[in-house]
Amino acid sequence: MNTIEQLNKKFARQDFSQEPLYTDELKRYVEIARNYAELENMVSVLSDLRTNKSYIFYGKFSKVLGLKQDSQTETLYSIWEDNILNKVHPDDLKQKYIQELYFFDFVRQQPKDKRSNYHLIHKIRMKNRTGNYIYVLHRTLYIYSPKSKDIWLALCLYGPAWDTGLCENIILNTSNGETLKLNQLRAEGILSEREKQILNYIGKGMISKDIATALSISKNTVSRHRQEILKKLQVRNSIEAYNIAKELNII
């Protein structure tokens, strides 16, 4: 399973069936996305994970990228803005999905009242209107449903990267200015060393009984670790956990 399929699965697992439509709230966030394009000249994409629909607003920077100019707005029946993503360098596009997958898992582990504080910021290379790659600053922030606090909307912003050494794979806490480097976070604290050991054994096809023997622990202890791994990585089974951990360079 590739990274975008994993993202789609995680988004799809969120249950909005018991929530109202939030029509007024959606209109407000659509206007916020429009304002980013108008005031900061960015390409602004607001994706509704509930309805699989995106609203794209083309600020003046879209001319640099050679994006459509006949209209300043566009509505897509998809949460993936392919006309924009197709301009991203293939290596950077893969990394972009991996970073967003990690960011999704990161914010889901935060207290519900703190989740909206975090933004993902990183640089990507995109083709400009002449077909040459330039650096673009890409930002992702999530908007949460008022009731369940699941991720309801995703706002992606594309703008000029004025310093190519700036903001490489950073999670920014906008409430206090704290920054967290994704590469550092991956290496620290997502899974314990024991959980990483167990995942590596799972990747070799070993069952819990054999893992317990190899680590000189009980089978019940292995089972508890496996459940904790699934919880931390927000997946349903150990094979998915192993695959996503490999994608995120956790193991």
Please explain how this structure is put together.
With 251 residues, the chain is an alpha+beta fold. It has helices at residues 3-12, 23-40, 61-64, 82-85, 90-108, 182-187, 193-203, 208-215, 219-233, 238-247; strands at 43-48, 53-58, 73-76, 118-127, 133-144, 151-160, 170-173, 179-181. Strands 3-2-1-6-5-4-7-8 form an eight-stranded antiparallel β-sheet, sandwiched between helices. A hairpin with a 6-residue loop joins strand 5 (133-144) and strand 6 (151-160). Helix 7 (193-203) packs across helix 9 (219-233), helix 8 crosses helix 9 (219-233) and helix 9 (219-233) crosses helix 10. The radius of gyration is 20 Å and the shape is globular. The model has no long low-confidence stretch (mean pLDDT 85).
